[in-house]
Amino acid sequence: MKANSHRVLIRPLLTEKITGLREKTNTVGFVVHPEANRIQIRQAVEELLKVKVEKINVMNIRGKVKKLGRFSGRRSDWKKALVTLKEGEKLEMYESA
């Protein structure tokens, strides 16, 4: 995949578990492009969000099979990145509200 920072980060993950991680360990979560690697994710976060990254954990999430009556379908596979920020760094988009 070509390293375009805007294509690497798709959207932030806002769940209760990640909110707890953010408060305890300064970790934020993102849905990332399925072909992105750790180096591209690190560069995208540091370039777009202007913060320093300590470490990155990446997980491939398999899509679930969902049924509606006698019909079944499958959700898409996706990739999740948990980004731990260096000590003293914080993201402004999470601080409001």
Structural overview:
With 97 residues, the protein is an alpha+beta fold. The chain has a single domain, classed as 2-Layer Sandwich (Alpha-Beta Plaits). 31% of the residues lie in helices and 37% in strands. It contains four helices and six strands; from the N terminus they run αβαβαββββα. The strands form two sheets. The protein has a four-stranded antiparallel β-sheet with strand order 1-2-6-3. The longest helix has 12 residues.
User: Largest sheet, order of strands side by side?
Assistant: 1-2-6-3
The best one-word shape is: globular
CATH class descriptor: Alpha Beta
The pLDDT mean sits at 92
Q: Any idea what the CATH architecture is?
A: 2-Layer Sandwich
**Rg from alpha-carbon coordinates:** 15 Å
Q: What characterizes the major β-sheet? A: 4 strands, antiparallel
CATH superfamily: RRM (RNA recognition motif) domain
Poorly predicted regions are none
Distance between the termini: 35 Å
Reported by name, the CATH topology is: Alpha-Beta Plaits
| Number of helical regions | 4
The counted number of beta strands is: 6
Q: How many structurally independent domains?
A: 1
Strand and helix order = HEHEHEEEEH
- Helix percentage: 25-40%
Structural class: alpha+beta
